Amino acid sequence: MSFAGDKLFVADTNDHRIRVVDLKSKQVATLKLQGVEPPMPAGGEERLVFPQAARTTLPLTKIPADGEVALEVEMKASPGFQLNPEAHLRYLLEALPPGKSPLESKHLVQGAGSFRLSVPVSKLSGQDGLRLSLLYYECGEASRGLCKVKSQIWDIPIQKDASASARAIHLHTGTVGQGK
Predict the structure, then answer these.
(1) 74 and 29, same structural domain?
(2) What global pTM score does this model have?
(3) Range of the domain at 10
(4) Tens of pLDDT along 92-111?
(5) How far apart are CA 5 and CA 21, in angstroms?
(6) Residue-wise pLDDT tens digits, 119-156
(7) Rounded to an integer, what distance in angstroms lies between the CA atom of residue 71 and that of residue 155?
(8) Is residue 96 part of a domain?
(9) 63 φ, ψ (degrees, to nearest 5)
(10) What is the CATH number of the domain that holds 101?
């Protein structure tokens, strides 16, 4: 928040806008910025950051030698909070050990509180595992005025095994689960 004259400028983090409150008329408007572009990170490519991430390493997971493996992710909000259905979550899927380029990096609307990623086993040839890094948003149940950025990183050691039948690895924010 910032004051200038009879105006109060408020950062609306949920909508990525600046709201202007006229303290005399009590009217609220959105500040219109024209010709302004967000800054680009050095090197021209955006680098994903997962602040204060909760880290979990799963036990060794045996996966089939062919086909696909699914990562089923369920996000649970902290007590007194709820997932912000209007926010976009971000994730980064990498092979372990981390290489030069990720297997997948996306933005998704986090409305449902869960999502599924399919990974072709052929992409994991010679890899020791997977790392899924997740950034999501939760807001106070009573008001969306108080929101928190949450991050979770799972390291999933894998071993291909022709006799393995589990094709799903279950991941939950705050807890872990495995295979179906």
Answers:
(1) no
(2) 0.72
(3) 1-33
(4) 999 998 776 788 888 888 77
(5) 11
(6) 999 988 888 999 999 999 888 887 767 888 999 999 99
(7) 12
(8) yes
(9) -120, 155
(10) 2.60.40.1930
